[in-house]
Amino acid sequence: QVQLVESGGGLVQAGGSLRLSCAASVGSFSTHAMGWFRQAPGKERDLVAFINWDSSYKYYVASVKGRFTISRDNAKNTMYLQMSSLKPEDTALYYCAAGVIVSTTQMKANYWGQGTQVTVSS
């Protein structure tokens, strides 16, 4: 069983930055691909970015590429999402996930965190 806890969300003005963290309580953290998803009100949960077990592969959806950076520290069982140049359309509940990579652009999540709210004001 994997337990994931997100932190770092909050309210920020457009153009600002936030760093999200995801702490995993599992001994096999380094064996899982990790990812960030987000869900805006009234919309489906969508993939934002994912990273493979040794950080050698990272994928970003087009809307965040160049603004967000995903990373992980296997020694600390923690994953991060550095978000810069934030836009109002980035406002959403951000979820951390652990799972497997199924293609170069897709990740299947097997475990989810509870989510952390990111609100970007214009």
Explain what the structure shows.
By secondary structure, this protein is an all-beta fold. Helix content is 0%, strand content 57%. It contains no helices and 11 strands. It has strands at 4-7, 10-13, 18-24, 33-39, 45-51, 58-60, 68-73, 78-83, 92-103, 106-112, 116-121. Strands 2, 4, 5, 6, 9, 10 and 11 form a 7-stranded mixed sheet that branches. A hairpin with a 2-residue loop joins β9 (92-103) and β10.
Topology:
Blueprint: E1 4-7, E2 10-13, E3 18-24, E4 33-39, E5 45-51, E6 58-60, E7 68-73, E8 78-83, E9 92-103, E10 106-112, E11 116-121
Parallel strand pairs: 2-11
Antiparallel strand pairs: 1-3, 3-8, 4-5, 4-9, 5-6, 7-8, 9-10, 9-11
How much helicity do the residues have? under 10%
Order of helices and strands: EEEEEEEEEEE
Silhouette: globular
- Approximate strand percentage: over 45%
Total helical segments: 0
Structural class: mainly beta
Distance between the termini: 40 Å
**Major β-sheet, in short?**
7 strands, mixed
**Overall pLDDT metric:** 96
- What is the β-strand count? 11
pLDDT < 50 stretches? none
Could you tell me the radius of gyration in angstroms? 13 Å
Task: Identify the notable features of this structure and list them briefly.
122 residues; mainly beta; seven-stranded mixed β-sheet
In brief:
The protein has strands at 4-7, 10-13, 18-24, 33-39, 45-51, 58-60, 68-73, 78-83, 92-103, 106-112, 116-121. With 122 residues, the chain is an all-beta fold. It is globular, with a radius of gyration of 13 Å.
